[in-house]
Amino acid sequence: MDSSELQKLAQHTRSMREAGITLVLASCLLAFFLFIPFASKKPAAPVITVAAPVIPNAFATVSLEAKAAVVYDLVTGKTLYAQNADAQLPLASLTKLLTVYAALRELSFTAPITIPPEALRVEGPRAFSANQVFTLSDLARLTLTASLNDGAAAIAIATAARKNLPQRDMLAGAAASLGLSQTYAVNGNGLDVSSSVSGGYGSAHDLAILAGALVAQAPGIAAATTQHSAQATSAGGTSFSVQNTDPMVGTISRLLLSKTGYTDLAGGNLALVFDVGIRHPIAVVVLGSSQKARFIDGTALVAATFAHFANVGSL
Predict the structure, then answer these.
(1) CA 269 to CA 287: how far, in whole Å?
(2) 261 pairs with which residues across the strands?
(3) 260 and 289 in contact (C-beta within 8 Å)?
(4) What confidence tens digit (pLDDT) does each residue in 35-69 have?
(5) End-to-end Cα spacing for the chain
(6) Is 12 exposed, middle or buried, given 0-12, 13-18 or 19+ CB atoms closer than 10 A?
(7) Quick check: 271 and 283 in contact, CB under 8 A?
(8) How many CB atoms lie within 10 A of CB 124?
(9) Secondary element (H or E) of residue 177
(10) Fewer Cβ within 10 Å of end Cβ, the chain: N or C?
(11) pLDDT tens digits for 87-107?
(12) 22: helix, coil or strand?
C-alpha cells in the first residue's frame, strides 16, 4: 500500500471517528433534554382544605314585641342587629335625651335653670315648684332618671330662650348637628300633643346615635340614669331624691345610660348604652313595644350582644 492510499485510509478513519463523536454528543444532548424535565418534576403537594370556623349568630333567635329595634356599635359605627331600625316612630320620653343634648350644646353644666310656671302645666310625672333653681347638670340628672316632664320643659324653655328660637327649631338644630334625619320634636318632654300627634319622632338608629352622643358629652349625667335613684339640691336648699323609671338598671353589666319612654301613641320605648369591653359602648334601642315588654326586649338584645362578642350563640 503506497503512501497515497495510507493517507486516504487515515483521512477516512478520522472522518469515521468525528462522526462517531458527533453521534455520541447528539445522543447525550437528546438524553439530557428528555430526562431532565422528568427528573426535576416534583410530585404535586396534597391540597389541604381548612373549613372556616362557623361563628354563631347570637341574634338569630331573638324575638321582640317591639315594632323597631337596633343594636349599634358606637365605636365602629356598625349595626349589629336591626328590625325596622330606620322607621320613624313616636319617641315619648326618649325625646328628653334630645332636649338635654340640645341644652348641653348651648349652656354650661353649671348654668342656672329656673323652673318657670308654664313648665308645671304639663302632665306628670312632676317634682318641682315654680321658681326653683337648679344647675343644668343637676336638673338633667333628675329629669332623665325619673323622666320628669316639668324638668324637661324647664330645660327646653331655657335653651330655646338662649338660642332665641322656638323650641321646635332649637330641637331641630340639635338633631341636625348629629345627622339625625328621622328625628324631630315639637316639645321638650315627648308628651303626646293630641290623640294623633306625638311630642317627638325618630328612628331606633337615630336614637342609638343620640344616646351615644349624650354619654360621650356628659358621662356624669348619663351615669345618674344607671342608678336606682338620683339626688340633687336646689339653689334654695331643697333636697330631691327621685326613683329611676327603669327597674332593670341593676341587672345590666357596665351600663352607661338608661332611658325609658311611654305614651299611648308611642307604646313602650327604651334606650340603653353599655360597655362590652374597655371603652367599647354599644347602644340598644327599642321602640313601639309595650310598657312591660320593652324591658324584656331590651334584656334579650343586651344578652345577645354580649354573646355576639363572646362568639357564642347565647349566654
Answers:
(1) 5
(2) 269
(3) no
(4) 444 444 555 666 665 555 667 899 999 999 999 99
(5) 113
(6) exposed
(7) yes
(8) 10
(9) helix 167-177
(10) N
(11) 999 999 999 999 999 999 999
(12) helix
- Site of grid cell 324638668: 151
Residues facing 200 on adjacent strands:
185
% the chain with pLDDT above 70? 82
- Which residue, 149, 145, 151, 213, is CA-closest to 179? 213
Count CA atoms closer than 13 A to 76's CA, side-chain side.
8
Contact 62, 304 (CB under 8 A): yes
CA distance 106 to 228: 29
Question: What single-letter DSSP state applies at residue 132?
Answer: -
Q: Is there a contact between 130 and 117 (Cβ–Cβ < 8 Å)?
A: yes
C-alpha cell at 262: 311611654
* Cβ pair 131, 119 in contact under 8 A: no
Question: In Å, what is the CA distance from 239 to each residue of 132, 140, 230?
Answer: 11, 15, 11
**Alpha carbons 310 and 315: distance in angstroms, whole number:** 9
For residue 155 the three cell numbers come to 330645660
Query: Could you count the other beta carbons within 10 Å of the beta carbon of residue 208?
Result: 26
Given a cut of 50, is residue 250 above it in pLDDT?
A: yes
Residues composing the chain:
315
Cell triple for 243: 326613683
Asked if CATH classification 3.40.710.10 holds for the domain at 68-309, the reply, yes or no, is yes
Q: What are phi and psi of 263, to 5 degrees?
A: -145, 170
Query: Which grid coordinates belong to 236?
Result: 334654695
Domain-wise residue ranges, the chain: 68-309
Per DSSP, the residues of 276-287 read: SSTT-EEEEEEE
